[in-house]
């Protein structure tokens, strides 16, 4: 479940290991590039945290963020 945290959409993902986490990040990268909307990404071993906000809209959550979040959830 995505949550609003400090004015951004946030979600943490936990995977079996680093390779699985990085594979997920690769898929996120392709989605983000396709949608021309790029998340803040934090990765430590098997844990990935994503933050979404629209910088062009004054660092607010917009429909672009919600669309990317929905796409990421389909991975």
Give an overview in words.
This protein has 75 residues and is an alpha+beta fold. The chain contains two helices and four strands, in the order ββαββα. It has helices spanning 18-35, 63-73, and strands at 3-5, 8-14, 40-44, 47-52. A four-stranded antiparallel beta sheet has the order 1-2-4-3, covered by helices on one side. Helix 1 (18-35) packs across helix 2 (63-73). The mean pLDDT is 97.
CATH architecture: 2-Layer Sandwich
User: Which ranges are low-confidence, i.e. pLDDT below 50, for 5 or more consecutive residues?
Assistant: none
> Main sheet?
4 strands, antiparallel
Shape: globular
Q: In what order do the strands lie side by side in the largest sheet? A: 1-2-4-3
Treating each run of at least 4 consecutive H or I residues as one helix, how many helices? 2
CATH topology: Gyrase A, domain 2
Helix fraction, binned, reads 25-40%
Estimated structural class: alpha+beta
Task: Supply the CATH superfamily name.
Answer: Transcriptional coactivator/pterin dehydratase
What count of structural domains?
1
- Average pLDDT value? 97
SSE layout and pairing:
Blueprint: E1 3-5, E2 8-14, H1 18-35, E3 40-44, E4 47-52, H2 63-73
Antiparallel strand pairs: 1-2, 2-4, 3-4
């Amino acid at each position: 479940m995505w949550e609003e945290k400090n004015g951004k959409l946030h979600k943490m993902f936990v995977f079996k290991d680093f390779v699985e986490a990085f594979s997920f990040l690769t898929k996120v990268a392709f989605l983000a590039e396709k949608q021309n909307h790029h998340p803040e990404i934090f990765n430590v071993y098997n844990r990935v945290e994503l933050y979404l906000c629209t910088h062009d809209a004054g660092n607010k959550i917009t429909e672009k963020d919600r669309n990317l979040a929905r796409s990421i959830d389909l991975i």
